[in-house]
Amino acid sequence: MSSRRDIDHALDEIDENIHLFERTLRTRVEIPEVQAARVLALLDGSNQQDTVRALAESIAARLGAECRIHSLSAGGEGAPLTDDRDRLPFEILELVEREDFGLVVLPTPFLEDYLSLGAASLGVVADVLLARSPVPMIHVREPIEDIGALLERGVLITVDAGAEACRAAGWMWRLTEGPLQVLVAMSSAEHHAVLEFGRTAADPVTEEDIGRRLGDEVSPLLAALQALARGADRVVEGHAYPEELREVLRREDFPVCFCAVPGRESPDQTGPLARESVRYCRGPVLVVP
Amino acid sequence: MIATGGEVSPVLMAVFALVMVATYVVIATEKVHKTLAAATGALVVLVVGVWANVFPYSDLYQFVAKDLNVLGVIIGTSVLVEVVGSSGLFHFVAIRIVKWTGGRPRTLFTALVLLTFVFVTFLTIVPAMLVLSSLVLVVTRTLELDPRPYMMGIALAANAGACTTLASGLPNLMIGTAAGFSYVDFLVATLPFSFLALALSWLVVRFMYGSLLPETATSQPGAPTHRVSDFDEWALVSDVRVFRRSAIILGLTVVGFMIARPLRLGLDFVAVAGGTAALFLSGLDVEKTFRKVNWAVVLFFVALFTLIGAVEETGLLHEIAGRLEGIIDGSLHLGLGLFCLVTGVLSGIVDNIPVAATMVPIVRGLETLDAGPLWWAVALGANLGGSLTPIGSIAGVIAIHALKKEANVRVGWGEFLKVGGTLFAVQVVAAIAYLIVMESLGLLPGAAS
Questions:
Q1: B198 and B117 in contact (C-beta within 8 Å)?
Q2: CA distance A254 to chain B (A)
Q3: Average pLDDT, whole number, for chain B?
């Protein structure tokens, strides 16, 4: 009646469908509404400076917030925050707290040479801000001319549906107005840990298992975003990759786009996902603590 | 052995018969893939037919051309179902219905049986079973219910649903094409019986598995995810615009099937138009979607049409038709019973597609009997036969293997024959009675060709 191959194929599809139905049973999460009364743009005279300013102004307009511009160095626009380079990140944090900024946009130049050297640091300022910032920060990596087109779509990078991921989703939802993609892929450290664990198990973990598990973890967040999308005539899609995040971000077909990522692993430590996102994305990256 | 003067010798006829039977045996025993078996059989009869001057090689294209619309419908509906399925529409409807039942086992059973019937009517058996068998496994696991009655219920209801329309199953399409029936003709002739067959399926499974269908589920009230109300039907809808468009295109395609004849168009046109529109408006990857079409089935049909066409050229099937007329002896009612029963039993043993493909030229070859009502006997028999054995229909095959793999529940031949065999006997008797009554009242649409 039906060959073994047909039956196996049907059983694989049933497996996939069971998985889909089970996903619809997961705990629901809420995407919080986010708001910032003030947006801070930090300029440093680099090639990214114009993008930082234009992006901060566009976002401030979208949020109905006030946009203020400060200079990071003597070469930038306006008076520099400090001449002491070592103090700079702490001056920024104090300024954010003192003036009650809800969002910061700053340049964190994308340096291919650093990547090829395998450098872990993004620079002193970016490293400290990633670890300590109490408010979301957008790291502008490469100059972008069309800010309007940039904010048309967004990519949320996450591996779970935790509170930080939901906040990051809330920001992405608020700042963009077109299609939203939820990109699920692990940082290299997590990826290797899972594979290592899989090798020692009797039933080894496959790449497909990883992709599926990641999709499961994120599915409540995806469902919550899709519920928002239905009311707003927007599209939200999820893509789970059983690969390292950096491999996905380095793909030729991965566009230069606006990305958001949950930021912390612990109160003082930057999550590896946030670090890798900022390192390998060419578009602006919103890191949400 | 060589054919001369348009007559084919009995020995040559026997060779063709042998090749056809051998091909069917190989298909039934699954020794090799059915497409490969049919292709081998087709190649052999082609070589013998051309070498023995039974037909010129160019006739090959006529064998396939007669049923070319079947291939168009398969390809068009495959694309349409793939696109609509990706939109989350089927999962959405299925979850919403399950939620509506509140998880009450008996209501759930009835709802799933009805839903299967509707899905098969519009989607054919395979896509419907893939979605609904998965849902049964998840819901019964969640509610801590035995999945057997539900799975058997949907598998047997699927065969009843396959009787409903010209596009519900491939045997219907082949028979409808050969007889020249329209989509509406099919509805008029088979819809009332499909409801009856569905009710019988519900009754038999409900009776056989009554003890496994309690009034209430034993789900723990303290476990919030263990309730059907926790299913989120929207969770699998990624793009609500594609979702809406898919629903509209599917609806329009069904309407298109109904009005194709007055518009002087074929069902294949409607199916391909529906598939094209769905692809165009969904934004799905075209190549990836085309890869989902079951090309093995398409090629199986090409090979089967060649095999049957070649055998028909020998006059063998005409000869069988003549013998059958001798047995029937002018009694149309006896003919209805015989064709329905024989087609049904054969379809329970061999794939119903080659059975229908073989019965088509036999019915067409009848000379003294009015073939019109007999087409319906073949159509109903081919679909109902699926309930007879666990291998009679893809619905039963999917149900049994999914139960074993996903729920570690074994339904053996004995259990299936007890439930399915009983149902088959009841349904075939009902089908014969129904056809006799309909024929006596002049309500059966006649063949156009």
A1: yes
A2: 17
A3: 90
Sheet holding A66-71, edge to edge: A66-71, A38-43, A103-107, A137-140, A285-288, A259-262, A154-157, A180-186, A236-244
For A182, the closest chain B residue by CA position comes to: B238
Range of the domain at B90: 68-291
At B362, the pLDDT band (50, 70, 90 cuts) reads: very high
pLDDT of residue B224: 36
Residues in chain A within 8 Å Cβ distance of B385: none
For residue A17, give the nearest of B130, B139, B233 by CB distance: B130
Model confidence band, residue B1 (pLDDT cutoffs 50, 70, 90): very low
Summarised one tens digit per residue, pLDDT across range A178-223 is 889 898 887 777 777 766 666 555 566 676 777 777 777 888 888 8
Alpha-carbon distance of A36 to A52, in angstroms, equals 17
- pLDDT (mean) for B368-394: 92
Using alpha carbons only, what angle is made at residue A47 by residues A289 and A117, rounded to the nearest 5 degrees? 70
Rounded to a whole number of angstroms, the CA Rg of chain B reads 23
By the 8 A CB rule, do A220 and A27 touch?
Answer: yes
Task: Determine the Cα–Cα distance for residues B337 and B325; give it in Å rounded to an integer.
Answer: 13
B178 occurs within a structural domain: yes
- CB–CB contact A238 B393 (8 Å): no
Residue B121 forms part of a structural domain? yes
More confident residue, A119 or B57: B57
DSSP H/E element including A116:
helix A112-117
Residue B119 lies in a domain: yes
Phi and psi, residue B383, nearest 5°: -80, -40
Q: Are A235 and B239 in contact (CB under 8 A)?
A: yes
Distance CA B346, CA B382 (A): 8
Average pLDDT, chain A: 82
Any CB–CB contact under 8 A between B288 and chain A? no
Domain count, chain B: 1
Nearest to B392 among A1, A14, A28 (CB): A1
- Quick check: B209 and B418 in contact, CB under 8 A? no
Q: What is the pLDDT of residues A244-260, one digit of tens each?
A: 888 888 887 788 899 99
Assess whether pLDDT exceeds 90 at residue B216: no
* Closest alpha carbon to A81 in A69, A91, A68: A91
Domains and CATH numbers, chain A: 29-288 (3.40.50.12370)
Residue A267 vs residue A45, higher pLDDT: A45
CA distance A187 to chain B (A): 25
- Rounded to 5°, the CA angle A255-A258-A263 comes to 120
* pLDDT of amino acid A239: 83
Task: Please report the sign of the dihedral spanned by the C-alpha atoms of residue B178, residue B380, residue B269, residue B182.
Answer: positive
Interface contact A223-B30, CB threshold 8 A: no
In a domain, B338, yes or no: no
